[in-house]
Please model this.
Amino acid sequence: MPLRAMVLEEDRATKLLVTERLAEEGYETVLCPDISAVLDAVERNNVHICVVGARYRGVDGYDIVRQLRHKSGAGLILLGNSEDEIDAVLALEMGADDYMVKPVRPRELCARVRAVVRRIAAAAPDADGTRPMPSPSLRRVGNVEICGVRRSVRIGGQPIELTTFEFDVLMVLVAHTNAILSRDQIIKSVRGDQWSISDRSVDGIISRLRRKLFAGEEGNRRIKTVHGRGYMLLEAQMLDEV
Model:
């Protein structure tokens, strides 16, 4: 099967540049008349990577990324207009694999596309399009049940909604239970070396995980802050030992 890509970008010059560079990387560009056709194409697994602009056919790029991630495990790169960290974090939380600020630098684009494709190849999508991380298929932390294959979290049988970024951080913590992870280690495990995200952003994700998964003070005990070093997810038998 040939490699296929979509370029969802309103700016003609940027779209032409990205399309030409992807062609040099061996990608065929899939053309779709509207957003519904785009979603249909990725759902049929005919697309390997999508490069999404800040807006496309009047639809916000972040919303397009969210819809695409819900439908497919294809690689998603969002092209933004802002260097503000919050925009990059939002893109990741919506389900993007990477975020680039325009104007597009061709060599950087190709390098990022290759990096995204490598990560996808290392964690091939499940039958329903979800993309597992290397981890046990099912883990429990207290009454929280985490399935890495289906990328789902349940408490007492009830599904818990997590953003893509929140789930990925949770899986990193689960994979290193009872070990201290620095903020840099967490970010690099989830997104690689190319992201520069502040400690405050990591702290915010940890805070939301505590609130969503555990009641009251249990969140602070389960995901323990180790001052000056980072965070540690504790198994039940370790709670009284630290």
Summary: The two ends are 53 Å apart (CA to CA). The longest strand covers residues 3-8. Residues 3 and 74 are 11 Å apart (CA to CA). Residues 124-137, 236-242 have pLDDT under 50 and may be disordered.
